[in-house]
Structures are given as C-alpha cells and as structure tokens.
Amino acid sequence: MLSILRNRVYRHLLAAQIVALTGTGLATVALGLLAFELAGEAAGLVLGTALTIKMVAYVVVAPIAAAFAEKLDRRRMLVALDVVRAAVAMCLPFVTEIWQVYLLIFVLQSASAGFTPTFQATIPDVLTDEQDYTKALSLSRLAYDLESVVSPMLAALLLTIVSFDSLFWGTGLGFVASALLVTSVVLPSPKPTKPRGVYDRTTRGIRLFLETPRLRGLLALSWAAASLSAMVIVNTVVIVRANLGLSESAVAIALAGFGGGSMLAAFVLPALLTRFRDRRVMLTGAIFGTFSMAMGAALSIGGQITLPTLILTWVCVGFGYSATLTPSGRLLTRSAPPEDRPAVFAAQFTLSHACWLVLYPLAGWLMTVKGITHALGWMAFAAILGLALAVLLWPTEGRKAVSKEHLHKP
Question: How far lies 25's CA from each of 16, 32, 34, 294, in Å?
C-alpha cells in the first residue's frame, strides 16, 4: 500500500490531507469548549446548530463550487480555499457571540465543501493506475480514522499547556501547511472541450449521478452507510454514559472500536478489490454492517449490551461502513471523464451529506424518545432500505452500470 508514496505529487497531497485533518480535529475539540464558554448548559444546542449549518453548507455549496472548479486552475483553487479556512480558524479565538460562531462555521464549511470534492477528484488524475488509486483510497480512509484518534489525544496534551482558544491557531496552521504542500506540486486541471453554462456546470454532477445506474446504487449505499454511522456518532455517548453508566474514557474506547473496524477494512480492501467486483465488496460490507447493528438491537432486548459487546458491535459496524464507502472513488472515477470528475465528486459529497442531514437528527430522536433497542433496530432497518434500493438500482452487468454519456470502462 505504501508503494504509492513514491509518487511525489501524491505524497505531498496526502501530507496536505493529514495536516488539514489534524487541524480540523483540534477545531472540533476547541469548538465544543468554546460553545460551553458562550452558552453554558445550552452548549449542546449550539453544537447541534453548528453541525446542521455544516451539513447545509456541504449540501448547498459543493455543486456551486464544482461549477467554478471546472473553470479554475485546481491548484490555485485548493490553495485559495485553504487560505480562507485558515483565516476563519484564526478568527474563532476572538469570538464573543454565538451568532459569530454560526457565521464563521458556515464560511469555514463552505470552503471545505469546495475544497474536499476538488481534492478528491484530483487524486485519480495523479494516480492513473486503478490499483494505485485503490491503495490511495485506503490510505485516505486510514488518515480519517487515525485523525479521529490522534487529534483528541493531541488536543488533550496541548490543553495542559495552553488555553482551548489556542487550538484554533493550530487549526489555522494546519490549513496553512496544507496550502504550502499543495503549492509545492503541479496538479492536472482538465477542461471540457466545449463551453458550458452556469446551470449546466452547477447541476452536471447530480445529473450524471441520476443517469448512471451504479452511481444511483452508490447513493442508496451511502444512505445505508449513513444510517450505521449516524447511530454510532450521535448515540455512543448516550449508550455508554446513560445506559451503561460508564465514564467519559469509556466513550472514547467505544468510538475507537468503530474507527478500528474501519481501519481494518482499509487494510484488506486493496486485496479484496483485486479479486472481487466493487459491487460485491460494497454490498457485502453494507450487509455485514447492517447485520451487526441488528444483532446489537437483539442483544439490547435482553439487556446484554455491555462495553465489550458494544465495542465488538462497533468494530463490525465500522468494518462494514468502510467496506461500503471506501471503494466509491473508483466508481466515480469510472463514471466520468477527467473534466467532469470534480462535478461528480461534488455530487457524491452533496448527496451523502444530505443523507446525514436526515439521519443524524433521526438517530438522536429515536434514542431520546424510544430508547436503545428501537434506535438500533430502526437505524438497521433504514440501512436495509438503502441496501434493497442499491440491489435494485445497480445492475450486476458491467456495461449496464455505466451511463450512456460516459461509457468509459466496463
């Protein structure tokens, strides 16, 4: 897997991703502490609103940013968005009102909505061999999972010597370092052969999604994966603290189980994807994750949910989640020529976050009103619905799975 690091351009892009993710992780910790300082016991409401703003920015801004990405030099665009993110992060230590938090979060996440899909769409143009690109997808998944473990630990260490608002400076420095790494390499910027109007450029990615059977299947699988992850992200703290009556460190251990399962899948996927088709691997991953959550619901009926069983359940769910979504970049790359990839990646970014925008509050409501068994059961059922749609929408025959407009690979 690490052999692809011999490619200098990809090596710098991966380093840029890692430092930006680390900075974002520090900001997540600092934002929670800032919310508590500004709102006290209402900090949860502030953070919930900020999360909603983040998702709205992702859903609305990503297609618009993709329209501009088609016209602009990708390297300049990525650097400019990193500079915007750094500037916003360095404004957060000076916030004194809650509305200022909301405004800055919207600007920060809007920049991320432009940066992330464009960055993702650039990788397959740098690593043109599909096996190399598959390894890059696994490394990217590992980077996300490691960040979820390393950033809180780094934040805890820094908080022993600095105040929480200093963490935002670390976030800003992470984005600056990302910009410098992107500047240090030359990136491909494919352009369409014919000029396109603003409406065409803005909606192109979503239209290609709806025209391509395997991408429609990917959207259904994104719903299934979001159902699984929403339950984990939203309700782990409630299960551990309220249902099991355990400490805050137990929450971190349980969440590490999900991340560990995801990392395990990232390690084995390159080998699996050389032997089996993407469809089989992704559907199997979704089935495994959904079955694991359903088993968790069954265990909760008999009161058999303990920290070890929860960790094991989350490991299995994390494995299924990663196996479902990590190969998605391969589908997106096959389904569009280089000049359309930013639009298609932006569409996936928008539509997948629209799923979370629905499922995050649903998972929280089910846990609050119905309890752990119903929450686990109904979120597993939501994943089953996504799975059923994926099977119907994504045909097994290779050529039927490709849109008429972009018939590039079987």
Answer: 14, 11, 14, 30
**Contact between 237 and 251 (Cβ < 8 Å):** yes
- Residues ≥6 apart with Cβ < 8 Å to 380: 227, 290, 293, 294, 297
For residue 129, give every residue at least 6 positions away whose Cβ sits within 8 Å of its Cβ, in sequence order, or none. Answer: none
According to the model, what pLDDT value does residue 400 have? Answer: 43
Report the SS3 class of residue 77: helix
Helix (H, G, I), strand (E, B) or coil at 96: coil
Report the pLDDT value the prediction gives residue 198, as an integer from 0 to 100.
Answer: 59
* Cβ atoms of 183 and 79 closer than 8 Å: yes
The percent helix, strand, coil of the chain (3-state, each to 5) is 85, 0, 15
For residue 306, what are the CA distances in angstroms to 154, 245, 376?
29, 10, 15
Q: The tokens of 127 are what?
A: 């690593």
Residue 386 CA to residue 209 CA, distance in Å, equals: 16
Q: Which of 39, 49, 63, 182 is nearest to 104 (CA)?
A: 49
What is the 3 state secondary structure string of 116-141? HHHHHHHHHHHCCCHHHHHHHHHHHH
Torsion angle of C-alpha atoms 155, 161, 163, 166, degrees rounded to 10: -60
Please tell me what DSSP assigns to residue 197: -
Q: pLDDT of 366-378, one tens digit each?
A: 988 888 999 999 9
| pLDDT tens digits, one per residue of 98-143 | 899 899 989 998 998 888 888 887 888 888 888 888 888 888 888 8
